[in-house]
């Protein structure tokens, strides 16, 4: 039988405290505006994904207004971002859609950024934003308001279906390839 000495007891307490302090594995992006969500009649959540199929479904017309990843992902098929969605899932809010390739702390500081790789992403949802990570592949924009946030990167080309879609785009982040109307 092991004798519990003051050193063993102290080490156990310190190990427990350390595990408690460092053991939080909650990597879900925090809600961006709790006040607006508290006032909403409809409660919506982000689609938090760690698998390719879940990501593709989350960005489909039957998905959610925001899709966030928990790790690097590779999708073997083309991704289609479709449907009309509103900020925070509330129809009273502006049309808005977001792909969050990151996790953040309670102060909205990005902790980890992730890479999403796919052959092609077609954006058919208005006001779609890529934020906080890297999309590797070509993006085909077929809607107004496409945005690459300053914290994001498209490692590929961005092709716009019309001059109107290109003029409405906001590219604050990096695009490594061409940006042109096709």
Fold and architecture overview:
With 182 residues, the chain is of the alpha/beta class. It has one domain (27-181). It is built from four helices and 16 strands. The strands form three sheets. Strands 3, 4, 8, 10, 12, 13, 15 and 16 form an eight-stranded parallel sheet that branches. Strand 6 (102-104) and strand 7 (110-113) form a beta hairpin. The longest helix has 17 residues, at 6-22.
Number of domains: 1
Radius of gyration: 20 Å
What is the overall number of helices? 4
Name the overall outline.
globular
Question: Count the strands?
Answer: 16
* Percentage of β-strand residues: 25-35%
* Coarse structural class: alpha/beta
Provide a concise account of the structure shown:
This protein has 182 residues and is α/β, with parallel strands linked by helices.
What is the topology?
Blueprint: H1 6-22, H2 34-39, E1 47-49, H3 52-59, E2 66-69, E3 73-74, E4 79-81, E5 97-100, E6 102-104, E7 110-113, E8 115-123, E9 128-131, E10 134-141, E11 147-148, E12 153-155, E13 158-160, H4 163-168, E14 170-171, E15 174-175, E16 179-181
Parallel strand pairs: 1-2, 2-5, 3-8, 4-8, 5-9, 8-10, 9-11, 10-12, 10-13, 11-14, 12-15, 13-16
Antiparallel strand pairs: 6-7
Output the keywords.
alpha/beta, six-stranded parallel beta sheet, 182 residues, disordered N terminus
